[in-house]
From TrEMBL:
This protein's name: Methylamine utilisation protein MauE domain-containing protein
Keyword line: Membrane, Transmembrane, Transmembrane helix
Membrane topology according to the record: Multi-pass membrane protein
Major subcellular location class: membrane
Entry's Gene Ontology BP terms: methylamine metabolic process
Transmembrane segments: 21-39, 59-80, 87-109, 129-147
Residue stretches making up the Methylamine utilisation protein MauE domain: 19-146
Domain of life: Bacteria
InterPro entries referenced in this protein's UniProt entry, alphabetically: Methylamine_util_MauE
Amino acid sequence: MESVITNSSKFQISDLTKEKIVIAIRWLCMALFIYTAYAKITDHDRFLNGLLRVHLISGFAVFISIAVPIVEIIIATLLLIPKTSKIGLYCFTATMAAFTIYIISALIWEKNLPCLCGGAIEKLSWTQHIWLNLAFITLAIFALWLVNLNTSFKN
């Protein structure tokens, strides 16, 4: 007689814990975008002048200087509202990936790259910027995985 032993010792967390983790990640992502949008808006001239010095995007500097903080605020708002938070996490992930690709591209092709993030984040090295972005992307993907893993809570 054969017996089958199943290992059900998978790491499991409750739905409430998953929901709290997702909410915490949403708030972290939202805080990052509100903080950087605020810094870009309050010191818009510096942000615009920095964009004008980046050859890759200088032709679009005025548009980018207005669009980036608006996009950050819209995504932060999507993350705040439970019914739109999943879309917000996808948008946050895509935007952070685009920022990371921009940083890597600019590091390759630009001689002197100014940091335009705003606030204390400008104190980071370019390697630290990339790691920070990758950490936030990973958090957002983890939150999306938790949301998609268990659809019993609406985030």
